[in-house]
Each structure stands twice: as C-alpha cells, then as structure tokens.
Amino acid sequence: MKSLPIYLASASPRRHELLLQMGVPHQVLAVPAPDGEDEPQLPGEAPEVYVRRTARDKAIRAREWVARQHRALEAGALSLSTPILSADTTVILGGDILGKPLDIEDARTMLQRLSGRTHAVHTAIVIAHAGVLLEDVSITEVRFKALTASEIDSYCHSGEPLGKAGAYGIQGKAGRFVAYISGSYTGVMGLPLYETGRLLDQLSSPKV
Fold it and tell me: Where is this site: Important for substrate specificity (predicted)?
C-alpha cells in the first residue's frame, strides 16, 4: 500500500505514533476543540451511534477549519485536496459511555466499575476526501482482572488515566490489568491499524 499524505485531525500522540508505525506520511492539524472534554451524547443516542457520529463530526469540523485556513492564508496554505483522518474512541460498560475522566476521583470511579468486568471499546475512524466521508469502526472486548484499591490508587496517581477514554491506556501501566482481549489492540489505543489501512486503500480507488 502506497499511502497518500494525509492530515490527522487529532492531538492524540498515540494516533500520531500509530500512523508513523504504518508508514503513513501525515501532518497533525491543530483544530480547535469544541467546549468540553468530550462531545455530548444526544438524548436517546446509543453508544455505538455516538462514537461514529463523533468521529464524523470531527472530520467535518476539521474539513471546515482547513477551508477557513486556506481562504485566510497566502501561498503555503493548507491543501483542500489532502485527505483528513479523524477518530473517536469510546469505552462502553453495561450500555454506559465511560469518557475521559474529569479528575482523579472520576478516574477512580471508572476503574472501580471496570474492575473484574468485560467492557467494549469502539473506535470509529473517518477519512474526509473529495467531498466523501469514508467510515469504519473496530469493536474490541476487554476484560479487566479484579483490581485492588491499592492498584487503582497507584494508577490514578500516576496521571496516566487523565485524557483517556475509560480512564486507562492499554499500552501503558494499565496493560497489566487486562486479563483478556478480543479484537483490535491498536483500536483500544485509539487507531485500529487494519481498519485504517483498509480506508487508506480506498483512497486509491477510482470512486474516491
């Protein structure tokens, strides 16, 4: 697969690193985020629908931002023809969305809920290109071992839970909490490589 240069509409260092791992040339866009840490879930919106909509909204917002930058700047402006990749990762437990914790106590509560239970991690990815939105999603089951209060406290004070959906990063210290995983490890990290590669392959299709 010969990858086209793309824009990454995400400040996540993990997504940046995973694209580097794939050998995909890219530029990170500093798209201003909306108010609040997470996109609000709409009334009655299923978590599975929420994660797809959020990734789609990020791509659209980035596309509009690039267009504004293009109009405002002279030579060297951002290209309107470069594909834009966005993603959203959501942890779902018992039908509830566990987003990014507000603080350490919020992280502690999330980890207590995840302890000894199986949850789902949905990562939706969207590529906006030539007026088309290409979409895919990875769904991964993760089961945590039963966590002790000491383990939760130590992990919370490491600072690692903050800024991560479900209050944990599987690639970090929380990796030892995972008793079982079925699906995409990189999807839990924030960017499923298989699904991302599949969408990038579609960019070379005559239809796109």
Answer: 14, 89, 171
Judge contact between 197 and 4, C-beta under 8 A: no
CA torsion angle for 82, 88, 89, 91 (degrees, to 10)? -170
Number of domains making up the chain = 1
Q: Give the distance between the most distant pair of CA atoms in the chain.
A: 57
Token couple for 69 = 């930058």
Pairwise CA distance, residues 179 & 149, whole Å:
17
Residue from 88, 136, 153, 201 carrying the catalytic annotation? 88
Amino acid identity, position 173: K
pLDDT tens-digit map of 91-133: 999 999 999 999 999 999 999 999 999 999 999 999 999 889 9
Q: Which two tokens stand for residue 55?
A: 């990734």
- d(C-alpha 136, C-alpha 126), whole Å: 7
Is-catalytic flag, 96? no
- Please write the tens of the pLDDT for every residue from 38-86: 678 888 999 999 999 999 999 999 999 998 888 777 545 788 899 999 9
The rounded distance, in Å, linking the Cα atoms of 93 and 19 is: 28
pTM of the model: 0.91
Report phi then psi at 12, rounded to 5.
-65, 120
Q: Show the tokens assigned to 96.
A: 């509830």
